[in-house]
Amino acid sequence: MARTRTTLTVLRTERLTPHLIRVWFGGPGFADYQTNEFTDQYVKFLFPREGGEVMRTYTIRKVDAEKGELAADFVTHGDEGIAGPWAAAAQPGETLSLLGPGGAYAPRADADWHLLAGDESAIPAIASALEAMAPTAVGRVFLEVSGPEDKLPLDKPEGVELTWLERGDRAPGELLAATVRNAPWDSGNVQVFMHGEAHAIMHDLRRYIRRERTVSAEWAQSISGYWRRGHTEEGFRVWKQELAEAESVPNPA
């Protein structure tokens, strides 16, 4: 991704659900932000910590060039983590720097149908994708959240079926993976976007899409974890690197 550093000012915050906070940014630094065409447009926020800064990756939910502002949605679980508590306490006038944006996915008009799946961390990217689809687009979307209070209204084409999944006490991604595997499969070229808890996405659903359903990389290039249960983002990066190295080793004959 581009490594351009931009410093933005907090304008306001909105609590969308008990576990999702939207922070609107703007200020003089907005003029330096170079948006792109991807619906999974993401940045690396730089949070000041003792001894330096730590990076946390988030999808940009909305960009309003006319108003000179953009929004990012933060999943929060009380005092857990770095970005969530920051978003819960953020006040207008505070500043925060970021690197980016990057991105790799946008809905294709030539897809016969779309398949999108994820947990709370993927809601911003999936919501943006739904808004960018043609009114005639068809497909299925599966979103896993903690419970009914974490559902929120999303704009989508009429032909796209949206299914909310309430995980309750189950491990993150477990219900999502099982539901996607058991869902109907349509004919034609499907464009796939799946992100969320890494073990469920990368060990289960990616294998299902690429190997069992034989969807090519051209149509299923955006299947990856956004986070890993029990890992910080730094630990998650190490885990992803180790997984990539393991997958690059040919299986013995």
UniProtKB/TrEMBL annotation:
One Pfam entry name = SIP
Q: Which residues form the FAD-binding FR-type domain?
A: 3-108
**What domain of life is recorded for the organism?**
Bacteria
* MF GO annotations: oxidoreductase activity
Q: Which PANTHER family does UniProt cross-reference here?
A: FERRIC REDUCTASE, NADPH-DEPENDENT, NADPH-DEPENDENT FERRIC-CHELATE REDUCTASE
Descriptive protein name: Siderophore-interacting protein
Q: What is the lineage of its organism?
A: Bacteria, Bacillati, Actinomycetota, Actinomycetes, Mycobacteriales
